[in-house]
Amino acid sequence: MSKEIEFHFKSPTDSPGYLLGQVTMLWQRKLKKVLDPLDLTHTQFVLLASLGWLSKTNDNVTQVDIAKQSNADRMMVSKVLRTLEDKDFITRQEHETDTRAKTIKLTNKGEKILQKALVAVENADLDFFSFLDSKLASFNKYLVQLIDKNQD
């Protein structure tokens, strides 16, 4: 029965999607270990990091800005931001010029937890990707190209 199923790739290790999925799951497991003690999920970390990055150059960061920066669904971003607000990591205030938008800001508590999380995640990344050694810059370049090519 299953012998009749046809695959494009001869084996799972020939499939870039399969391999990317495997690496992603292993990487996310590693990040979960360092983020759990900080009471953050990976998604919460990504949105906090996006907010932190955007806040360096913009005092009026919105939910839409965070969604674009993180390549995340706007509705999911809204739900996660509510959770981060409940944890007192962010505040949401009326936007200065757009009555439909809210300005998202890190609280002092949010800045502290983000800084701890950045150190933990960046160290985990350096460890996880250390195998690539001198090829890391090329690997990152290809990832950027894949993101650019596949954004809708």
From TrEMBL:
Entry-linked PROSITE patterns: HTH_MARR_2
GO MF assignments: DNA binding; DNA-binding transcription factor activity
Keyword terms, alphabetized: DNA-binding, Transcription, Transcription regulation
Signal sequence, start to end: none
Pfam family of the protein (one): MarR
GO biological process: response to stress
Superkingdom in the source lineage: Bacteria
Sequence ranges assigned to domain HTH marR-type in this UniProt record: 1-152
Keyword Protease: no
Protein name: DNA-binding transcriptional regulator, MarR family
